[in-house]
């Protein structure tokens, strides 16, 4: 970039280069999971998401967790108590308009009200069909615990999820999934813009969910102001926010300049798997239905998130069945989109190919 270039010009160049040299116009779709080598080469190395249609359709969860009455979940885990997020509009962890003690408006980061509920209560609160969510003061529930909530809180139904479906991805990252989390909500729930520092595979087991995805380089035009913290609560039957200690940096969707276009949109239906690389932003993801797109009837949404790796770099040098994953030589396109990917990840068996690669690197550095 010439020294005379301004910051807006640099951002424009980043946008143009990332679209021309790296980003897909649509999310790649496959009918069956592949093997570790193509997955590492085509998606992990260049940081590109993909969907496997119907890859999880054989999971018992796909046939058992849904339905209007959630009979299986009520019978097996209905008595368990979990933390349920409640908001007036379905937007948990979102930027909102709030009022201070003097009635002056300000932009704030709002956390949901959290209540301890039995799973059966949560399921009864989900809305299915026309008219859902028409009451002004009705709470919109959403369950999305972390720290491997499937095994930690809902272990009785863990056998309904076949983690072996993503064995090829675990091979690519050199280890088993570090966490398996569950989320449950309905078509009113909207997860606001954020990025996770994890390599995730999302599985929808009931309903469908729409994701708008943006790559890490788009952070340049996703405003992330520092906001005062507030928390939703109900007083005399009315929803209000109250200030709590601390500040949070969060993407303010009202400040996003639409001139930078939109991300890549994908709908994930029951039985589908979505691979989302680390640091990719999820914008306004929602359960599809009355307020969403793609499903003819509003359905509840149950899903499973398999966290494969905390960071792509963590997979470097991990041995697996005598093989070595050489990923430290990969230039992440999300960090340097204009350079694309200089070198694909090499998967080798520790034999001559790896030794030749190491000798070649030493010669370039001036060693023996």
TrEMBL record:
Residues 39-280 form the Cupin-like domain. SUPFAM superfamilies: Clavaminate synthase-like. It comes from Chondrus crispus. Pfam families: Cupin_8. This is Cupin-like domain-containing protein. InterPro entries: Cupin_8 (IPR041667), RmlC-like_jellyroll (IPR014710).
């Amino acid at each position: 970039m010439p020294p005379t270039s301004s910051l807006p010009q640099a951002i424009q160049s980043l946008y143009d280069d990332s679209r021309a040299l790296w980003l897909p116009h649509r999310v790649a779709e496959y009918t069956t999971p592949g093997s570790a080598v193509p997955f590492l080469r085509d998606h992990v190395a260049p940081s590109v998401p993909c969907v496997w249609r119907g890859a999880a359709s054989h999971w018992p969860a796909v046939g058992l967790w849904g339905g209007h009455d959630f009979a299986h979940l009520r019978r097996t885990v209905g008595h368990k108590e979990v933390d349920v997020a409640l908001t007036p509009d379905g937007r948990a962890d979102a930027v909102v308009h709030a009022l201070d003690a003097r009635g002056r408006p300000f932009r704030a980061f709002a956390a949901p009200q959290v209540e301890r509920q039995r799973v059966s209560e949560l399921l009864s609160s989900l809305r299915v069909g026309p008219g859902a969510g028409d009451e002004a003061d009705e709470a919109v529930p959403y369950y999305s615990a972390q720290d491997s909530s499937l095994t930690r809180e809902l272990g009785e139904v863990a056998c309904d999820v076949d983690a072996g479906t993503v064995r090829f991805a675990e091979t690519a990252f050199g280890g088993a999934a570090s966490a398996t989390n569950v989320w449950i909500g309905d078509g009113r729930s909207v997860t606001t813009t954020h990025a996770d520092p994890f390599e995730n595979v999302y599985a929808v087991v009931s309903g469908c969910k729409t994701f708008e995805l943006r790559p890490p380089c788009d952070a340049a035009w996703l405003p992330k102001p520092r906001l005062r913290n507030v928390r939703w609560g109900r007083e005399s039957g009315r929803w209000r926010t109250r200030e709590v200690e601390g500040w949070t940096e969060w993407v303010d969707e009202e400040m996003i300049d639409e001139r930078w276009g939109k991300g890549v949109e994908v709908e994930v239906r029951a039985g589908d798997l979505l691979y989302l690389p680390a640091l990719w932003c999820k914008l306004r993801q929602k359960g599809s239905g009355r307020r969403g797109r793609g499903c003819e009837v509003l359905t509840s949404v149950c899903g499973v998130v398999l966290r494969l790796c905390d960071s792509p770099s963590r997979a470097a040098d991990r041995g697996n069945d005598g093989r070595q994953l050489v990923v430290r030589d990969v230039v992440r396109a999300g960090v340097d989109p204009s350079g694309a990917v200089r070198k694909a990840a090499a998967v080798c068996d520790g034999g001559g190919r790896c030794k030749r690669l190491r000798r070649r690197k030493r010669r370039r550095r001036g060693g023996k």
